[in-house]
Specification:
This protein is an alpha+beta fold. It folds into three domains: 114 residues, Acyl-CoA dehydrogenase/oxidase, N-terminal domain (Butyryl-Coa Dehydrogenase, subunit A, domain 1); 106 residues, Butyryl-CoA Dehydrogenase, subunit A, domain 2; 145 residues, Butyryl-CoA Dehydrogenase, subunit A, domain 3, CATH 1.20.140.10. It is 52% helix and 16% strand. The strands form three sheets. The protein has a four-stranded mixed beta sheet, covered by helices on one side. Strands 2-3-7-6 form a four-stranded antiparallel beta sheet, with no helix packed on it. Strands 9-10 form a two-stranded antiparallel ribbon. The protein is globular. The two termini are 25 Å apart. The model has no long low-confidence stretch (mean pLDDT 94).
């Protein structure tokens, strides 16, 4: 099987890598994190101008017709730079829901804004009691004439504080954990009855708790078919897993390479610690864990490009299981081999590890996806 990239994909990779190298060093990243919004608006405008926000969308929808492999390439470079701009919540999640479930009018009104950067979005799918079960939805949407009344609590909604629209998953029929009876709605952030509590996450991103109290949403804001939203959300989350998987692979590459360079210069007992055989073995293990994760990442991207279904779902869960082992090992080893420096805020190592740790639980941990893999 040929794993080489096309000329266009090589250009995309080089473009993002050049931006990370020239305009997104660690100090700049830390400055962006400290901004009130949690990211740099100028960078977001640049992403739109370069066409990166349109990569996952078809040409018919106004995008660049990119594949899952293209998204993987872009997100891997974002992982190398620890990019904090909300590409995942706005483009992959909210944009993905619009891509899969919106009609022509909704795409023209909303998806075009996501692609040109004038609209930011967020996906509110998780709830305090749901853990990783996408079907566990207690938030309700009750028909009320030509609209729905939404009530409930959505947890850890990434980018909600900067979003213009929030894609809300709610139950329109059935029991709390039924896959049938779930619907998806586009909610304006200014809607009456919607309140938000914002907070920073451990990996320097922004998230919010959302409370919905009789929030009125027009039936025209329904994404996809009524009571059939579970399949839509499952696909969007799986595409999100591929994205964060690529981000994790990029972060792991930086960690093991920076660790190798550090061990070449850090001296103990009169010689660089990189000459100690036991540490050499550890660094080789870090390299192998990264390579194994990258191989499964490629496989998952190819399966998603072949068409979404059980085969692609198994590949995505396999990726998450591998990350559960590899990302933890690489992160912990990098911190350990850097010694006390690996724990400081001033060094990038700990920040990469924090992001990897968050990725391990986002969209389901390794145990959850191992069980899911076995069911499919």
């Amino acid at each position: 099987m040929d794993f080489s990239f096309t000329d266009e994909q090589n250009l995309l990779q080089e473009s993002v890598a050049r931006f990370i190298q020239n305009d997104y060093d660690f100090e700049t990243r830390q400055k962006n994190c400290s901004d009130g919004t949690g990211f740099n608006a100028g960078n977001w405008k640049t992403f739109a101008e370069l066409g990166w926000l349109g990569v996952p969308f078809s040409e018919e929808d106004g995008g660049f017709g990119g594949s899952a492999v293209d998204t993987m390439i872009l997100m891997e470079q974002f992982g190398r730079g620890l990019v904090v701009e909300p590409f995942l919540p706005s483009v992959i999640l909210a944009g993905g829901a619009l891509k899969v479930g919106s009609n022509a009018g909704q795409k023209e009104k909303l998806l075009a804004g996501i692609i040109d950067g004038s609209i930011q979005g967020a996906l509110a799918y998780a709830e305090p009691q749901s853990r990783f079960n996408l079907a566990d939805v207690a938030t309700t949407a009750v028909a009320d004439g030509d609209s729905f009344k939404l009530n409930g609590h959505k947890a850890v909604v990434l980018n909600a504080q900067n979003a213009d629209i929030i894609i809300v998953v709610a139950r329109t029929s059935g029991e709390q954990r039924d896959e049938a009876g779930i619907s998806v709605f586009v909610v304006d952030v200014e809607a009456a009855g919607l309140t938000r509590r914002d907070y920073p996450t451990v990996d320097a991103l922004r998230a919010s708790e959302l409370m919905l109290e009789n929030v009125s949403v027009s039936k025209d804001n329904l994404l996809g078919k009524l009571n059939e939203g579970f399949v839509l959300i499952e696909q969007v989350i799986d595409e999100g897993i591929l994205a964060i998987g690529a981000e994790a692979v990029g972060a792991m590459e930086v960690l093991y390479k920076d660790t190798v360079e550090y061990c070449k210069t850090r001296e103990q007992f009169g010689q660089p610690i990189g000459k100690f055989q036991v540490l050499q073995h550890r660094m080789v293990d870090m390299f192998m864990e990264h390579e194994q994760s990258k191989s499964i990442l490629f496989m998952a991207a190819i399966r998603l490009d072949e068409g979404y279904g059980p085969v692609a779902q198994k590949a995505v869960s396999a990726l998450k299981v591998q990350l559960g082992k590899s990302a933890r090992f690489v992160g912990q080893s990098a911190v350990q081999l850097h010694g006390g420096m690996g724990m400081t805020e001033e060094l990038n190592i700990g920040h990469y590890f924090k992001r990897l740790t968050s990725i391990l639980t986002l969209f389901g941990n390794a145990d959850f996806h191992l069980k899911r893999f076995g069911r499919l």
